[in-house]
Amino acid sequence: MGKNIVQKILDSHIVTGTPAPGGVVGIRIDQTLTQDATGTMAYLQFEALGFDRVKTELSVSYVDHNTVQDGFENADDHKYLETVAAKYGALFSKPGNGICHQVHLERFGRPGKTLLGSDSHTPTGGGIAMLAIGAGGLDVAVAMGGGAFNLVFPRVVKVELTGALRPWVSAKDIILALLEILGTKGNADSIVEYGGPAVAGLSVPERATVTNMGAELGVITSIFPADEKTRLFLKAQGREADFAAGAADSDASYDRVITIDLSALSPRAACPHSPGNVKKLSELSGIKVDQVLIGSCTNASCRDITLTAAMLKGRKVSPAVSLGVAVGSRQVLETVSGNGALADIVSAGARILESACGFCIGNSAAPRTDAVSVRTSNRNFFGRSGTPSAQVYLTSPEAAVAAALSGEIRDPEEFFADREYPQITVPDNFIIDDSMILKPAADPSKVTVYRGPNIGAPPTNEACPDTINGRVAIKTGDKITTDHIMPAGSRLKYRSNIQKYAEFVFEREDPAFAKRALDNKEKGIHNIIVAGESYGQGSSREHAAICPMYLGVKAVIAVSMERIHRANLINFGIIPALFETPAEYAKINNGDELTISDVRNRINNGVQLTAVRKSDGLSVNLRVELTEREKGMLLAGGLINECRERAGG
Ligand code: MIC
Ligand code: SF4
């Protein structure tokens, strides 16, 4: 039986475990990436784990999220990251060099390699045929130290692409169509592998748009083959030597096959407040738009920005609209400033934003109250834009420009009906200038790691108690994202200061949560979070586990839970428990006092836990499915404690 691409890469990287359905495998990680919002904690943990050197083939530390610098905090983090990278052997991409996923694709991604990143959009690298996975910072710290990354042996879903995209329909519409089919939950054990005759017609940046937003499906990752388009992209980046062909065997098998006929696709949008809430643009036509933002790691490549410029050329943005453009990398910025495209964007009336995450993470360009904002980014979770009452729609650059010019949501096929689709060219040879990527120090002993007042020691937990004397500190609904748990935006600057950042846990859901939880903790009451389906969707931010841990949360009991967040909970010693049925969830209320007894013994022996309500004796069974490795971490109170125990410390 032939092999698919995922199997081939796994075969050459599995170091432990059972490569069979239901098994858990440990894989060798060739490359890692971190970004500043998660990276500071990842490197603090790398240091706390006692590693003396980065042991991967390549580790890059990017600064792209917290670039607002309204105070010393962000800049303190940047300097810490720069010096810690120099000392331990990582590359450091300075603020201004671009968004981690775009830069990594351009300068470092290699077909057939594994990449682990402390950012959920790390799967962008699948566009260049890497097995690229997002994880919590602690897992990345372990991988930087040479440790394996553990994952469930995946189901591989093939997405067969046929036909060809019509003009004005683009890569974003492919992934929006797949989100319509697969939704944003229930896909945690799958990897999507693209194939079929239409793949050859898609450039690497277009493929990367698709794999980037694959994160919104909740899958482990997504991957395209490495073919002639991949080779040409690497050649244009001066890296042809990094090319290695990668294709599925003709008789490869898959767990599921989904076919998408690109010729039949029409432009779409993800409507408020979920990337899975997809509708055809023709159904939304006429909605008045206040703001349009083009950029983010999804759609800010040279192709996207050059196309944006071509569509705007000679026209003016609607007076009702504020258009902002943030290019994905310094390379893209230099290219479009050299070829005149940037001037076309400026002259149409756009605001040029920094090449960084910026608006996408809600730390700038928040729209007005009740605004409609059309964006080319990948997430429109409630409140993420920085304005809770705003309605955010996610579209392709083509649809975003149609909205900017008309002041309304429009289907670009209809809006541009009288125009030819712009024939754009991207360089055969990109401008190669890595001067904003700093190399590790030749003599690490000469580097002193800078620790400004914003840099604290990573907090640790106590060992898992034998009895949880708990209180439900919050009961949430379905699809609670890590943006709900741990808001980013203006709060981002506290990422290295857990005590302060913890004040904002569930800030928008229940502003009194943090204080209440801390009061419980001080009284010796253990906090419990109760949640519905798909708890912890979205980002990889481990702060959504660390800060609740700091507030004394001992267990999350949910109907279902997403992959990265579940792993983060275990890494920080919080029990990820599941209700046996959704009906059980309905029985538990906010404020209920729950006792969970014999916890250590039951976890150790793989026996389900039981929560008993103090007021009426109601008893609810809880499923806690853990691997041996996870049991050890949980009982020790998290991965750092466990490593210290193993080291006899
Ligand atoms: C995001 O897009 O939500 C982020 C901000 O990039 C996060 C990482 C973070 O919270 O720092 C992600 O995707 O993992
Ligand atoms: Fe940055 Fe947005 Fe991409 Fe996250 S999704 S890495 S915030 S650009």
Describe this structure in words.
By secondary structure, the protein is α/β, with parallel strands linked by helices. It is globular. Strands 21-22-23-24-27-26-25 form a seven-stranded mixed β-barrel. Strands 7-6-3-4-5-20 form a six-stranded mixed β-sheet, covered by helices on one side. Among the domains are: 268-415, 2-Layer Sandwich (Aconitase, domain 3), CATH 3.30.499; 468-647, Aconitase, domain 4 (Alpha-Beta Barrel), CATH 3.20.19.10. The chain starts with a helix and ends with a helix. The mean pLDDT is 97. It binds alpha-methylisocitric acid and iron/sulfur cluster (SF4).
Summarize this structure briefly:
With 649 residues, the chain is α/β, with parallel strands linked by helices. The chain contains 22 helices and 27 strands.
Strand content: 15-25%
- Work out the helix count: 22
Any ligands, ions or cofactors bound here, and which? alpha-methylisocitric acid, iron/sulfur cluster
Uncertain segments are none
Arrangement of strands in the largest sheet? 21-22-23-24-27-26-25
Q: Could you give a short account of the major beta sheet?
A: 7 strands, mixed, barrel
CATH superfamily of the domain at 468-647: Aconitase, domain 4
In the CATH scheme, the class of the domain at 468-647 would be: Alpha Beta
What is the radius of gyration computed over CA atoms, rounded to a whole number of angstroms? 24 Å
Q: What is the helical fraction, as a range of percent? A: 25-40%
User: How does the helix and strand content classify structurally?
Assistant: alpha/beta
Mean pLDDT: 97
The N- to C-terminal Cα distance equals 49 Å
CATH architecture label name of the domain at 468-647 = Alpha-Beta Barrel
User: How would you describe the shape?
Assistant: globular
